[in-house]
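Dear support,

I submitted the protein below through the web form. The confirmation email said the job was done, but the results page showed an empty box. After a refresh the structure appeared. I'm attaching both so you can tell me whether what I see now is the final result or a partial one.
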Amino acid sequence: MPLYRRVIHNCPKPDIWIATPRYRQALLVRYTNFRAESIRQRIKHGTIHFLESAVAPLDLRWKDYEMRKGFTRKPKADEPATQGKNYITPSGLQRLHDEHRFLLSRERPAVTEVVAWAASNGDRSENADYQYGKRRLRQIDGRIRFLRKRIEAAEVVDPETPRTGQAATRAFFGATVRYANAAGVERVVSIVGTDEVDLDRNHISWVSPLGRALLKSAAGDSVVLQAPGGTEYLDVLEVCYERISVEPFREPPGSESSSKGSSRRRHSN
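What the results page shows now:
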């Protein structure tokens, strides 16, 4: 069945195909901003003009596919939480598990209870408790998905595992490195995963500029740090592997699952 290409005025990206008068009902819309009713009205009032007469025979199955494609919006898939493996220490993995368990078993049920209570109070359009609760639920669900992906991609590396050869003398993931800059100022850092970064404890990520500069270095080596503030030359003084203490997960203050949140709901009732 031949179809002729037509375009609509004031359409920023016209790509609309109208059937011949004999097959006027076979209408294919590929520009999603125009709906079938709008097209029918434009056909009725004569606002669709013939600008091209190029014939483009289309298979009926392709036509049906494009028709469905024009009126449906494909949901966006979740972005991957990590590219490749997620190297992490045992303490860091335990922290992810603790946060995931807290959100799934305590925080989310508590927020769901608040949302259900707020929804029972009447009009939801001006209900601040309901709107905030729904927004908080979306945030929790997003965090749960993120944590689940991080846990699934986790590659646990224990710094206390016995090492031999270069693996014991060179800096790899889990190493604690003592180095000095050009001014002679010494610093000790531990190379950990991206979920365990803690500058107060001198825990740096293995993908950070400093972490990449120190990787595979040994005591007595000189490395070059390409930092945003400029180039620095560092002297590696010592490389060792010891237990890295990661701060455990703690329940955030003001959470709905806390006793304060529960008392607030009791007073509201």
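Response: this is the final, complete result; the empty box was a page-load delay. The chain has three domains: 3-71, 86-155, 166-240.
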